[in-house]
Amino acid sequence: MARIVMKFGGTSMAGIERIRGVAARVKREVEAGNRVAVVVSAMAGETDRLVGFCREASPLADPAEYDVVVASGEQVTSGLLAIVLQSMGLRARSWLGWQLPISTSEAHGKARILDVDTKALLTAMESGEVAVIPGFQGLTDANRVTTLGRGGSDTSAVAVAAALKADRCDIYTDVEGVFTTDPRIVPRARKLGKITYEEMLELASVGAKVLQTRSVELAMKEKVRVQVLSSFSDEPGTMVVDEDEVVEQELIAGVAYDRNEAKVTIGAVPDRPGIVAAIFGPLADANINVDMIVQNIANEQATDVTFTVPRTELARARTVLEANAEAIGYAKLVTDDSVVKISVVGVGMRSHAGVAVTMFRALADRGINVLAITTSEIKISVLIAEEYLELAVRVLHTAYGLDAAA
Ligand code: ADP
Ligand code: ASP
Ligand code: MG
């Protein structure tokens, strides 16, 4: 008898008709003889709505109370799914984050799961009851409700699967699996039968929101068998696997984009030792992540430093830099939030030269200017003007031979 975790995202839970569809899938797994825990998201759009209320109430909402508000969307869907399962003749109950509990760090709004208590859960599941668990939420040692960051229900599902030593963790979403790029931008994107943990981790971290980055990190560490598949079809999905399970490795696994980037240029700063520390120290102290960095060649003892911060943090970054203007000694500060980061990811890059050149040429041929570049062993990212997002993703998808046959 297999133990499985099924996770359903916001689109799959949007309204009672869809929840009935989800319940039918759960029923199928129960009737096949499996012990099932289901992790659910809030209805599509609900978390945005709740975040909006908090912002309206106060732009500086207390993060602990923000979590109380935004965690509620998942409470609703978990109860509704349990009701629908019961109405279909199954035994089911909801287990809220605080009831299990799912213990987390105290970082409200982006808490990390520390432990999932499975005692009560296992007893219920072994008796044949379906356990319905709201994703995205947890509890601190001080008994405060937390949330795990946007898209966090994926991480809840993987954490529950790891704690239950589940045989499978199936992530049901609104596309049929992991594609070579976002299928909503490139209709000729191809579904991948398998993708390595490492590539999925890198893709998620550069913007492919089909899985939350932390869920992949956790799956990799705990060796959870994750499959991404559609709530709306019976097509096979994508398995996330170890590298040795992939027989024929493509050079590039996929192309991703991230709109949550903003560019900051500090002009005419003195070119002396310690200057980058003077810029990035205060940003780090304010907990603002700096991503791409370019320092221009100095002329007449002054230099320009360009870097990116999350778009959502741009206003704060500006305030921090202005407060430190004297210590840094810059002449001007220019910010631009109409930029995006485009990345190509593939483990094949380790053994092949010329991958970056293909990218730069393809973009140059379309007149797309590259504003900043960063690389890792299996990834190349460029910063470009936002207006070229779709064009850039499409041309790179074609340049690396990823397009599906017409
Ligand atoms: P859920 O609500 O089920 O968690 P999300 O909206 O978080 O769904 O994630 C699914 C979405 O991820 C898809 O609708 C798709 O637009 C987007 N996406 C981005 N990159 C990819 C990719 N490489 N493969 C599949 N989907 C992707
Ligand atoms: N409902 C949360 C969000 O929209 C968590 C999730 O769906 O994964 O971010
Ligand atoms: Mg999601």
Q: What is the number of helical segments per DSSP (H or I, 4+ residues)?
A: 13
Query: Structural class, please?
Result: alpha/beta
What spatial order of strands do you see in the largest sheet? 3-6-2-1-9-11-12-10
Radius of gyration: 23 Å
Spatial separation of the terminal alpha carbons? 43 Å
Mean pLDDT: 95
* Strand content range: 15-25%
Q: Largest beta sheet, briefly?
A: 8 strands, mixed
Note the overall shape.
Answer: globular
Number of strands: 20
Fraction in helix: 25-40%
Q: Give a list of the ligands.
A: adenosine-5'-diphosphate, aspartic acid, magnesium ion
What are the low-pLDDT stretches, counting only 5+ consecutive residues below 50?
A: none
Structure report:
The longest helix is centred in the N-terminal third of the chain and has 16 residues, at 16-31. Helix content is 34%, strand content 25%. The strands form 5 sheets. It has an 8-stranded mixed β-sheet with strand order 3-6-2-1-9-11-12-10, sandwiched between helices. With 406 residues, it is of the alpha/beta class. Aspartic acid binds next to helix 6. Adenosine-5'-diphosphate binds next to loops.
Short description, anyone?
It contains 13 helices and 20 strands.
Keywords:
binds magnesium ion; 25% strand; 406 residues; binds adenosine-5'-diphosphate; four-stranded antiparallel beta sheet; alpha/beta; 13 helices
Q: How are the SSEs ordered, and which strands pair?
A:
Blueprint: E1 3-8, H1 16-31, E2 35-40, H2 46-57, H3 63-70, H4 72-87, E3 92-94, E4 102-104, E5 113-116, H5 119-126, E6 130-134, E7 137-139, E8 145-147, H6 153-163, E9 168-173, E10 194-196, H7 197-205, H8 213-222, E11 226-230, E12 238-241, E13 254-258, E14 262-270, H9 275-285, E15 293-295, E16 302-309, H10 314-323, H11 325-328, E17 332-336, E18 339-345, H12 355-365, E19 372-376, E20 379-385, H13 389-399
Parallel strand pairs: 1-2, 1-9, 2-6, 3-6, 9-11, 10-12
Antiparallel strand pairs: 4-5, 7-8, 11-12, 13-18, 14-16, 14-17, 15-16, 18-20, 19-20
Helix pairs in contact: 1-4, 6-8, 7-8, 12-13
The site of magnesium ion has 4 residues, from loops.
